[in-house]
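Submission checklist for the structure archive. All mandatory fields must be present; incomplete records are returned to the submitter.

[x] Identifier: histone deacetylase
[x] Organism: Angomonas deanei
[x] Residue count: 442
[x] Sequence attached
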Amino acid sequence: MLKHDPHGHRSPETSHRLQRGIDMLRQCDQSADLIPPEMCNDDALSNTSKKSAHNLSHFIPPRLATKEEVYTFHDKAVYEDFLEKGTVLENLKSDVYCNEGTSSRAVKLSVGGIIDASSLILQNVTRTTPAKEPSDSIFSSFCLLRPPGHHCTANRPSGFCLVNNVCLAAENLMRKCTVPEGSTTRPPRIAILDLDVHFGEGIAEYVDHFQSSSGECPLLYLSIHRYDDGGFYPFEKTADATFTGAGNKGSIGNMAIDTHASDVEKCEQVISDFLLEKLIDKVVLPRLDRFKPDLLFVSMGFDAAYGDPLGKMAVESGFCRSVAALKRWCTSGNSSKPPVGLVVALEGGYSPEAVALGILHVSYALTYAPDSALVKHFSEPKVPRTWGELRLKQERKYAQWEKSEQLASEKPPQLTLDDTTLLKKHVQWCDAQVKKFSSLVA
């Protein structure tokens, strides 16, 4: 997967995104807990203080997906030569790159990895016999994949995505797996939560067009994404909050956020730790309660992070807190709600440092208990740093304006409100967003 690189194509989707995350996992004090021995290099293990008496992670070795597994969702006419000969995909959009040989192998490793991980997790949470092996008790997985996948439709690579990893995993589960129910079995119920800053039109299209023999769609797609009244990539009408599905009505739930992070008058309207916390707790989890999935995929993009060059939002601790809350919900099984499998798959995020921190924080959330000191620490919401950034930007503009000989030009607006006042406005705005999307729960 690390050999799939732009090679001259001006793209922020590079191998450094994933490599930096792996390096940070290896170098952190909890590395022996967070990553299995197979992912540790000699340097990471040379420090005895990092060794753990019991490793908390299990390695699922990735394999090359078969062409038949990829054809369960993707158009054979588009992908045949790419998969079988390693040739470059043709007629690609300008926001996608593809290389001879290496891209095909990266795709097949990503797809094979997520299919095997999700199959294992689904099997474990629906098991009716006692666990025999340590791997039988694994209920969650973190798939570090690239290239990302959620923009890719059945026949159109898009937005750095060559194939749709999550859709392929879901489709293969639907075809190959059943879930025990009483004295019989049924297809699994699968929910997909997309936390990438961009709407995943590929996943939405898959869910909306899924054909079920029972008449009821066993798939649900929920997305929290920047929308800006349709002015943010991928510019799809189906990303609007009013769209709930055309083929499978009610199977799509869009939390489409109109943001104004660079507007002095409305800068409190930004995707933040506070917004994610409220939407997860008050919209996502109640909707999942209604849907009752057997397995939850999280399409985890880190491009809503502060510092991302494309997302330009303000999330920092929100990734850890979101996954911890989802894990708590998934594992809180009782007579009315059995445990739910959780599979987190890497999607976007184009600041390597922000992606690495996101990978580390999500690993904390998946490895340790939600109420552990470490998870609580990295889940504490932070005041959006976009405000301080905007304040400095406007101050520089004002200083330039004062030095200008053309003082008759319009005076640049100043961000005069302090962070405490902005935070009050921000929390009120977050509450308004929850109210706006409350119909997803009703």
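[x] Structure attached
Curator remark: The CA atoms of residues 259 and 269 lie 5 Å apart. The domain at 15-386 is CATH 3.40.800.20 (Arginase; Chain A).
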